[in-house]
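Running co-folding for nicotinamide-adenine-dinucleotide.
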Amino acid sequence: NCFGPGAANELRGRMTDTSEPSMGDKIVSETNQPAGDTTGDVALPVIDHWLGDTRWPGTGERCGDVFDPARGVVAARVRLASAADVDTAVASARRAHGAWSRTSLSKRSTVLFAFREALKRRADDLAMVISDQHGKVRSDAAGELQRGIEVVEFACGIPSMLAGAHTEGASTDIDVTTIRQSVGVTVGITPFNFPAMVPLWMCPVAIACGNAFILKPSERDPGASMILAECWAEAGLPEGVFTVLHGAADVVNALLHHPGVDAVSFVGSTPIARHVYETASVTGMRVQALGGAKNHMIVLPDADMDAAADAAVNAGYGSAGERCMAISVVVAVDPVGDDLVEAIAERTRGIVIGPGSDEASEMGPLVTAMHRDRVRGYIDAAEADGATLVVDGRSCEVSGSPDGYWLGPTLIDDVAAHMSVYTDEVFGPVLCIVRAPSYEAAIELVNTNRYGNGVAIFTRDGGAARRFTAEVEAGMVGVNVAIPVPVAYHSFGGWGESLFGDTHIYGPEGVAFYTRNKVVTTRWADPSTRGTDLGFPTNS
Ligand code: NAD
């Protein structure tokens, strides 16, 4: 297996997470699911934490199940940290922070360059473990890694980004210098849907800025995080600067209340993002919390219809719709609806579904059975609400994989704004069509939605596109680009309930988040100018 020697130890008869979920419906931890019929006589690999420069079992008594969604079986177990493990991890990170923050920028960027090379060398291993545990097809897994590597490349240039500012002669004999220093111990809490890319949105920037970083990856597909840890070690990062701590809600909450943690970056669903933001604000941490999404794509009547249909299908069903930037609603502005639906339906029916490991597959399974059933429930509800099922993926079967968590791409027309398939984040291969009588009606729909992550417009009219980019309420806007994920030297983030906090992630805003401003005012004056003066110092 990809977890190295010694990983396939102990296991049978041990440890099932029996902890209660602490928040509403969304928050039911799927690691609580029973292991089912999968263990048999075969010991499963166990995924350890990463502490110092090596794998670490910690002291936790519990493990969570990690599924192979294409086969519908438990394929590995992941250790769930205890409260004592959280203390150990934070103490280790605190010890490492001091020396790392004083390490020269030149040496830090050398480690970043080496990290990039290590990631490239391990790209196949990473794509494989992502695909096996998440379900996405290998090419998609390779794509997310590539986008993550672009953030590492951005972070390689950290010396120029921390150059600061200097003002000579701000006042008589006074110079002023602004420097940016590390924040301390930073924590990243990440979702299941991008097990490599989202951690790479955070850790290269945090570490380049001189912080120690503790990653709490999703417990559903934690394998990639261990390869990231190995890559950091291989790159020469001093031990303790990068830590991986596995766990679910209790571990997140322990980190959020830990006095040794200085900042937390969160990416996940909106209810948890809000919880993380509120908790960390009260405990006095710097926090950025990115939440869920409901991304709309407006198609104006003058758009290139083939390009729009291709984009809707790619952005709607890629990664089985389990992307925060997936298009879930196409707003067809009259009279384009019928032609557009036909073009999308034709493409949707041709999508090849199968295991991520099969090169012929274009779309894999959903991440867990529970999630697949939840998504299917939204299709049932849309049908009951009177929407039109143009393509129905509910009966999807994949030969040779009868127990996989399959759900075919589903296209639903005549969706109305009150239906749950429209109001909620579905996070599956379900594309909704809403018909709008005009541009004004279309943008009002977008701007009244509580989310504001990504949005796109398809048109050949530059004036309409310009008006749209000015008027739309969202953090990331695409013009004839359905998934407008910013390049690494810009920053990523949504508006509304898609982001709680002030800064977007990676890029220049990531550097701002992971550093503190310090302003030094200096006087080396001629001693003859001294004298007492109790007035407030003014500039002269
Ligand atoms: P999630 O919110 O269930 O989990 C995210 C992280 O929070 C995980 O590490 C998990 O262990 C932890 N967590 C879960 N329940 C918790 C609780 N009660 N208290 C504290 N921590 C808890 O999200 P997910 O299902 O893993 O990922 C999918 C979601 O992430 C979708 O909503 C998607 O839109 C969102 N997402 C957003 C972005 C973005 O950039 N805005 C990017 C990727 C994913």
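Result summary
The pocket of nicotinamide-adenine-dinucleotide is lined by residues 22-23, 27, 189-194, 198, 216, 218-219, 248-249, 252-253, 267-269, 272, 275, 290-293, 324, 425, 427, 453, 494, 498 (CB under 6 Å).
The CA atoms of residues 410 and 430 lie 5 Å apart.
Job closed.
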